[in-house]
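Q: Structure tokens for this one, please.
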Amino acid sequence: VYYCSEYWNNVNCFQLGASVAFTTNKGDDTITFQVCQSPYDKMAMNYAENPDPDGDPIKLGDLYAYNLYWMGSHGFYTALHSLNFSEYERGKFDVYVVLGNQFKFGDATIQLDLMNRGVSAKELLFENFSIMGEVDYLIAKRVNIFAKATYDKVGANYPTVIDDEGDYVGGLFLCPGTEMTRVGGGVEYYPLGGRGNRDIRLHAAYCYNIGNNTNTKGTAFDKGSFLTVGLTWKIDVIEGISALIDKRQAKRAANM
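A: Here is the predicted structure, written as tokens:
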């Protein structure tokens, strides 16, 4: 993931929680229910306007999220769909429906993700949403190219909460009136082999932004660009330690 939608760049993705899951006998489908801390739990709007006598912030209460996932793999199609309820105030939920889809045809892979968000049914009907699409193609054994586009839209009627630094969005991590598109692509090179071994990767990716971001602290703005060039090396630490131990044990056995 070299660049994402504006929503993805602002949301707090990782939270502490617990999950229970059921997987079918064939292993093709898994349904998971999760309860975790809401991604809005640490936002300024969940703290009292004035601190306590010691100057420490006063938290208004713990906020939770309730999520239901379906992950399925059927031939060329892989799905990750979810229904999510995240508290942004006590008893008030930001609801989002996520439809993640991947289609694989030989050396080509197509990914299409749709996220609808909102605190009301009206907003869930394409007033607040994100679309992300990507096409990858392995043009040679070690070379992969891709094109990617993302689109975010936030309706003008979404509530905001004011703090000392400006407007905080009441549940979407995006400010009302935002409409932003990002388009770009890139190339990946795998020196050890594109199919069998992707532990080392060289990459170059670029995207261009088009639209209006009303969040002055956002990550993407009109006519802005993003360029990344780098090296990724996946190291299996446990396997490396195990191999080192085996080597030393074999050496000791040989010297006995």
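A few notes: The chain has a mean pLDDT of 85. The CA atoms of residues 23 and 149 lie 33 Å apart.
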